[in-house]
Fold this sequence. Notes:
With 225 residues, the chain is an alpha/beta fold. It has seven helices and ten strands. The strands form two sheets. It has a six-stranded mixed β-sheet, sandwiched between helices. A four-stranded antiparallel β-sheet has the order 2-1-4-5, covered by helices on one side. Strand 1 and strand 2 form a beta hairpin. Helix 4 packs across helix 5 (142-153) and helix 5 (142-153) packs parallel to helix 6 (172-187). The two termini are 24 Å apart.
Amino acid sequence: MNLIDYKNVNVYQESQLVLQDVNFDVKEGEFIYITGKVGTGKSSLLKTIYGELPVLEGDAKVIGYDMKELRRRNLPDLRKELGIIFQDFQLLTDRTVDANLRFVLKATGWKNKVEINQRISDVLDLVGMSTKGYKMPSELSGGEQQRIVIARAILNSPKLILADEPTGNLDPETGRQITELLQQICKAGSTVIVITHNLQLIDQFPGRQFKCENRKLIEIKDEKK
């Protein structure tokens, strides 16, 4: 089954066309990289997938939702099935790690306190941060903050995880660890799309690769296969 199915989609940033005739299909369980220079439309493409930018031309389906017809009031339903990882973390800085995760669960309909506590414990353990729940974001390193962002993204066991430059602000070794963690999450059942400039990571952790260039989204075939 295709989680994403784009046919002849044009992607606009405000009134400017940034990607033309995008044909892009993503199946369950795939690990996908999108590369390209700054300003070539990578983040704009991701924004159409989670509904931040509208799809005006072409056919676009994301987890069964028609993105051309999707109303803003239905966006929360789509986003409950997505996990989004930002380069700049976007953690709530005025509360602990535990409270950050609790806030998301309550906002997405969790009510049972025991189940909430267990889910927080489970995701922190999965990302190797089981002892950091009481910490404030400012007390964590960049790599630790990104692990918390990944924990936040997987709270609701999303079908699809979108990671926009998740290693962009991290040193090479920490970036490698974060990419390895994302691949482990993919193997556990989530489809993962990663925007990155780091071609070394792609060599270390192979996946299907696309490149944004000259207003086109091009699939890069692995010639070694």
